[in-house]
Amino acid sequence: MTLAPLRLKKDEDRRLRAGHLWVFSNEVDVDSTPLTAFEPGQPVEIQDHRGTALGSGYVNPYSLICARLVSRDPALALNKSLLAHRFNVALSLRERLFDKPYYRLAFGDSDGLPGLVVDRFGDVLVAQITTAGMERCKDDIIAALQQVLKPAAIVLRNDSASRAVEGLESYVETAFGTMPETVELEENGVRFAAPLLTGQKTGWFYDHRMNRARMQHYVQGKRVLDVFSYIGGWGVQAAAAGANEALCVDSSEAALQHVHHNAALNGVAEHVKTLQGNAFEALKSLRAEREKFDVVILDPPAFIKRKKDLRAGLEAYQRINQQAMQVLAKDGILISCSCSFHLSRAELSNAMLTASRHIDRNLQILEQGHQGPDHPVHPAIPETDYLKAFNARVLPRI
After folding, report:
1. Of 256, 262, 344, 375, which has fewest CB within 10 angstroms of its CB?
2. What domain range includes position 247?
3. Span 188-217, mean pLDDT?
4. CA atoms of 116 and 340, how far apart (whole Å)
5. Would you state the pLDDT for residue 307?
6. 123 and 211 share a domain?
7. Cβ neighbours of residue 358 under 8 Å, at least 6 residues apart?
């Protein structure tokens, strides 16, 4: 197949040659290859200013990131064959790392699949497409997943807000097989039932697997507060690890119903309680009631989704960490997380420090966590390194 050329301006190929995969609209030589001539998602051959091929990719003339490199071999276009190859390469890593089939199978750019993530729940797959180029290949994606994994069902959770940037509609559909209301998974030896069709993102957050494993060392015999609990990933694992009590706080009543189900699934129902409400208001009420916890876990949604949200987001992270510290018992443990790429590790640490000093507490950082290895970091694309977690000791002033 002959691909239409997308030519870059002089010197705008340097980032791609250094390992990056994205092309921004202001880097395109629109005199030679007008962006308006392309359809959203159209396959292209990306070229430097001299017309030398840099590789194959796809284009969206209406997006700031107007093209993404798929292969450095211009003869390889994005099709079922290439997708199956990339899935096989990704699968070989996950099978090396995990003894059970519960993980993120494909993590976008980091697995050579820009605009696509796939989570595996045994014989059920949940895919999320975020770019016009991948949407154009939807049928090939389904066929390649069937070829490589022979799943019982494939769900497309194409309802993320980022699709609007690409001019894509939002929808959820079962693309293959029949989906049950919930699907079971196992993480760190603990079982969960996740609502893949109606839950957050793909239904589960595998990226915190290693951080939740580390958490288990701090909770035995303790009273634990899990804020932004969703369906109990942290709280139920804390109870399974020997916590005397885990209180899960979330704004969604449906999510908290799943918490109770998951606690029962692991025989720890008597150790898990729930509280529905806004996290900030719940922490305020718990403090007013003089409740104290030995371990508090904060795993909020991204408070900073865009650069312009940085100031307000920083204030939110500082405020929530301060409120968490105010319900900690003496010599308590705070596990504070952020999935906001635009919040650096240093900024989260400083927000925690500022919160501790504001209430006259001393802070010790004990451990730092990252996303799990099924969410590999592409070293040329900082955006793929997004997850932060700190295990900290909060002490009274001496």
Report:
1. 344
2. 187-396
3. 96
4. 19
5. 86
6. no
7. 322
- 10 Å CB burial of residue 234 (0-12, 13-18, 19+) is buried
**1 has pLDDT over 80:** no
- Burial class of residue 29 (count of CB atoms within 10 Å of its CB; 0-12, 13-18, 19+): middle
**Cβ atoms within 10 Å, residue 241:** 22
Do 127 and 233 have their domain in common?
Answer: no
**Residues 354 and 327 reside in one and the same domain:** yes
**Catalytic residue numbers, as ranges:** 339
pLDDT confidence of residue 2 = 87
Residue 155: CA atoms inside 13 Å, Cβ hemisphere, count?
Answer: 24
What are the CA-CA distances from residue 325 to residues 275, 337, 360 (Å)? 18, 14, 11
The span from the CA of 52 to the CA of 182, in Å, is 50
Q: What tokens does 133 get?
A: 């180029």
Q: Quick one: tokens of 250?
A: 């979330």
Q: Is there a single domain that holds both residue 9 and residue 92? A: no
Angle at 266 between CA 265 and CA 269, to 5 degrees: 80
- Residue in 393, 291, 303, 386 with CA at minimum distance from that of residue 352: 393
d(CA 40, CA 337): 36
